[in-house]
Amino acid sequence: MPFKLPSLTTVVAASALALFISGCDGGDERARDADPGTTEDAPRLDLDRLYSLPSLIGTTPGLATWSSDGEWIAFAWNDGARPFRDVWVYSPYSEELRRVTTHADERPEDSLHRGISEIAWLGADDAGLAYVLDGDLHLVDLAGMSERIEQGRERIRQVQVSPDGRYLSYVAGGAADGREHTFAEGGALWKVPLENGVPGEAVQLVSAAEPKAFVQSYEWARDTSRIAFVRADNSDMPERDIHYYAQGGELQVDTVTRAFPGDETTRRSLGVVEVDSGNVRWLELANDQYPIWNYGLSADGSRLFANTSNFVVKEHTIYVYDVASGARETFYHFEDPENVIPGWQAEWAPGDDGLIILTDRDGWYHLYHQAEAGGTPRALTSGEWEIASFEVDTDNGHAYFIANLPHPSERHVFRLDLEGGEPVRLTGEAGTWTPTFSPDYSSAALHFSNDTTPPDLYFGRPAEGADSIARITDSPLPEFHEHRWATISYPSFESHVDGATIHARLSVPPDFDPQKRYPLIVGSVYADAMRNQWGGRIAHPTWGIDQYFVANGYLVLNPNMRGSWGHGKVFSSGLLNDYGGIDTDDIESGVRHLIAEGYVDPERVGIWGSSYGGLMTLMSLFKKPGVYAAGIAGAPATNVWHAYPSQKWVMGERRGDDYPDRYRRQSALYHYAGLQDPLMIIHGTQDPVVLYSDTIALVERMIADGKQFELLTLPGGSHSWATDSLEQTRFIFRKMVDFFDRHLK
User: 402-448: per-residue pLDDT in tens?
Assistant: First the structure.
């Protein structure tokens, strides 16, 4: 019986959780709408209020973790709808919910500080919790007595507790500044003995070795005897200076470690350290610049698998090592020269009987069991749907996975008996579910959101079905429920180029009239932009501006173009070597579909996106003049020669006779001559991901060619320009609204 939300009267008022599950046939129009009254009754959406504190939608709970006995769930949350998250605990048995730290009370109200960054239960008896705040280690008991623990380390992170509860472990040293472009440099691995939940003196297990080296990740063996780890080293990567002007007009320089395609990249070392002795066994990799997607020790710690691929993700290989000798064997290997999405994962099968492997070898990401090296993988799941991730309950012989069934926009939790049988769906309501299971898998903390419901945390027991579900947090403010929000549906349509089926998310006003013709905004365009969760794509805080556009008479379309996950290998691989090509064709197909439906005015279509979405916006305007009446490109990736090296998954290697033409074909810098329609470019000067100088290079060429456009420069703005500050967010979004209103209304 699937998990379902209980009767709303047992949790919240009906207006707070207006959900229903649609038919499982993935129909063309599956609309959901929370209805507090007529449009006239609801207050008008105000852009400033949408992006101010306290937040209308509340604060997303996160970092859920279970005590070892399954009696408590700890998580980070703020019940006052402010960003700073404290530690909270919830007992599924007594239904007690309480905050156990009070740091948020000490923070200024306008702070965007996210608060506590990590949580771990201490010791075998779960006497209390360790947590990290501003890189410092703190302890707190369930009564709320909290103290900072001086460990003599800088920027503590990746805090874990050993399976037997005897040790606390973490990575610490010199660290990143929190921006997405920097690496956590200089981090060593440490162990700390625990006595009755109290940490002792820290002992270094694995050194950083070099100033630009750091322990990237690590994993305990189930018997606590060993730790497997990956150490990364950026010493060979080039450093680049980012010159920018900050507040007050002062020139500043950031020096960042940043590779372009063709440069040296991060080098990785794979090792296993004996917890008691500190002895390290280094294991040989095929190529130390190849990615390691995941790895894991067998139950007794004697063997280690490493799930890897070549740099351009065209060859997938899983190695298994004998830890004592370091001997390596190729357990699994599969080549696909057209692959662009590395969604691979591996885990040990129950009893260490080989591996459970997530691979798209047959065209869709599914689970396989392979018992021995070089053996034939046995399919455990199949169908025209995909699995995003999974975990193995080794004690009970089950796998739990998240998949996009019954519709590509959704993410549901399933249980699979590894001995055979069909997957059992455990979540019922349409939306996006992410579970955190208790140690014995009898219970789960469930992060849930859908098109009408901002994210919150729930509790459930898979074996008991719908009656077990309880809502733990209620994040949105009462004011949230007074508004009429957009109605969401999921149309599908055919590509006008090759007939491929494309799915999209469409937002329309609550009083939508299909007999009218509306202006349309396509965006923010990006891969994987179609999702049944609050706000759709959540990498940028676009939920508010999307709702504002819809409330002011626009339709908003988010298509899942080629290169998006979840639609099979044939669909995703269509993007290979074609940034700004087939992806922009797919976007245009969505525009054509809505125009053909009769409710979009073909003269009033706008498009916008940021980063890769900025590239797609520019290419759409440059190569398809007249399709769009206006476009906004944020931090646009105009020059793929300066992309991250991992973008070679799509762009291809920077070698071969065809590569110069191939890179020019995918770079907006060389296609500006086709610009005829209004364009605004938004870019922060401190962006190390997409360099502001690349925007200047494009601007210079367009000026020389007599092109008209608008440039909005954000002094000191980062790549995530919409999250730098609330003031900047409101400023930019007002500019975007004004621009589209001028050209589309």
Answer: 999 999 999 999 999 999 899 999 998 999 999 999 999 999 999 99
Residues for the chain: how many in total? Answer: 745
The position carrying tokens 């060619």 is: 705
Q: Which amino acid is at 730?
A: R
Q: How far apart are CA 527 and CA 636, in angstroms?
A: 15
Sign of CA dihedral 236, 335, 286, 391: positive
| Chain mean pLDDT for the chain | 91
* The two structure tokens encoding residue 596: 């053909």
CB 131 within 8 A of CB 85: no
Of 505, 575, 515, nearest in space to 535 by CA = 505
Torsions phi, psi for 139 (to 5 deg):
-120, 150
Cα distances from 360 to residues 86, 407, 576, in angstroms, run 40, 19, 16
Question: What is the DSSP-derived secondary structure letter of residue 56?
Answer: T
| Residues 6 or more apart in contact with residue 204 via CB below 8 angstroms | 188, 189, 190
Q: What is the DSSP letter of 705?
A: T
Name the 3-class secondary structure at 619.
Answer: helix
Rounded Cα gap, residues 497 and 476, in angstroms: 43
Query: At a CB cut-off of 8 Å and minimum separation 6, what does 327 contact?
Result: 321
Helix or strand holding residue 226 (H, E): strand 226-233
Which residue type, as a one-letter code, is found at position 731? F
Residues 6+ apart with CB under 8 A from 571: 500, 562, 564
Whether 16 has a pLDDT exceeding 60, the answer reads: no
| Confidence at residue 311, expressed as pLDDT on a 0 to 100 scale | 95
Calculate ∠ Cα 557-560-562, nearest 5°. Answer: 135
Q: How confident is the model at residue 690 (pLDDT cuts 50, 70, 90)?
A: very high
The DSSP bridge pattern shows strands 267-274 and 378-379 to be unpaired
d(CA 53, CA 47): 12
Tell which residue, 333, 231, 344, 227, has the closest CA to residue 278. 227
Distance, CA of 36 to CA of 38 (rounded, Å): 7
Cβ contact 642:252 at 8 Å: no
Q: DSSP secondary-structure letter at 480? A: G
- Phi and psi, residue 237, nearest 5°: -80, 145
Between the CA of residue 470 and those of 132, 415, 425, what are the distances in Å? Answer: 28, 20, 18
Q: What SS3 class is residue 307?
A: strand
Rounded to the nearest 10°, the torsion over CA 459, 461, 465, 468 is -50
Q: What is the largest CA-CA distance in the chain?
A: 75
Backbone dihedral angles phi then psi of residue 445, each to the nearest 5 degrees: -90, 130
**Residue at token pair 């050209």:** 743
Q: Give pLDDT, residue 15.
A: 27
Side chain identity at 274, as an amino acid letter? E
Q: How far apart are CA 665 and CA 575, in angstroms?
A: 13
- Alpha-carbon distances of 711 from 63, 254, 525, 708, 715, rounded to whole Å: 39, 23, 20, 10, 12
Question: What is d(CA 560, CA 568) in angstroms, rounded to the nearest whole number?
Answer: 12
257, 234 in Cβ contact below 8 A? yes
- β-sheet bridge partners, residue 318: 307, 332
Closest by alpha carbon to 518, among 459, 605, 644? Answer: 605
Going by C-beta distance under 8 Å and a sequence separation of 6 or more, which residues neighbour residue 75? Answer: 61, 62, 63, 64, 65, 87, 88, 89, 90, 119, 445, 457, 472
The C-alpha atoms of residue 251 and residue 623 are separated, in whole angstroms, by 37
The CA dihedral of 433, 438, 441, 442, to the nearest 10 degrees, is -100
Angle (CA) 739 742 745, round 5°: 120
Domains recognised in the chain with CATH numbers:
485-744 (3.40.50.1820)
Cα–Cα distance between 2 and 463 in angstroms, integer?
Answer: 9
- Whole-angstrom distance, CA of residue 244 vs CA of residue 253: 6
